[in-house]
Amino acid sequence: DSGVTQTPKHLITATGQRVTLRCSPRSGDLSVYWYQQSLDQGLQFLIQYYNGEERAKGNILERFSAQQFPDLHSELNLSSLELGDSALYFCASSVVEGAALGGYTFGSGTRLTVV
Amino acid sequence: AQSVTQPDIHITVSEGASLELRCNYSYGATPYLFWYVQSPGQGLQLLLKYFSGDTLVQGIKGFEAEFKRSQSSFNLRKPSVHWSDAAEYFCAVGPGYSTLTFGKGTMLLVSP
Asked: Which of A7-16, A17-26, B41-50 bottoms out in mean pLDDT, i.e. has the lowest?
């Protein structure tokens, strides 16, 4: 157990629907990162939060949004889902902003299947 | 912009043989470099990291990596591979204060 908790582990939904993925960072970590992993694109950075504030955006679609709450858990919202959104979504956390103090700690991911 | 290239998509190694996984990076300053391993159905686990100092770094599970600035490389090595090492390996690069960029991974297959 890495200490980063992601729920749900699996999600199957239909095109056009909206889903919410949840991440609880490791205790003491202030920064949360969301990554999308697909066979063709590999691990793509989506968005980063630090202590409740958005810090960096990567290849995140406008249909996707995220937030980090006061208790530091984060949610990734995916709307108007398309077949191509099917992927493994990872959350990672770190103590500080960035990997300087030892890299990221990853959760076990949420596998999203859009049918 | 930073980038990582892992030239080998798949590598097959016999159990007990040595292993080297290649990683080349592009980054404008001294990078923070990482190797992660992902077993099927699992998240990514940190194997080792390089920030500064000794260019040969030791990690968990008997892995080591060598930073070569002149070649922009950070190759992962293990002297004797075990069947349990079969997994996907990711190299990552970034500044210490911001997000990491990952390579597309190398799948390691271990043959008996």
From this structure: B41-50
In total, chain B counts a number of residues equal to 112
Dihedral angle over CA of B77, B81, B87, B88, nearest 10: 20
- How confident is the model over A25-81, as pLDDT tens digits? 999 999 999 999 998 888 999 999 999 999 999 989 999 999 999 999 999 999 999
Nearest to A58 among B44, B96, B99 (CB): B99
Cβ within 8 Å of residue B44, ≥6 positions away: A90, A92, A104, A106, B36, B37, B38, B90
CA atoms of A32 and A49, how far apart (whole Å): 5
Closest chain A C-alpha to B73 CA, distance in angstroms: 18
- A9 contacts: CB under 8 Å, gap ≥ 6: A108, A109, A110, A111
Percent of chain A predicted with pLDDT > 90: 86
CA distance to partner chain A, nearest, from residue B106 (Å): 11
pLDDT at A7 over 90: yes
What's chain A's length in residues? 115
Q: What are phi and psi of B82, to 5 degrees?
A: -110, 155
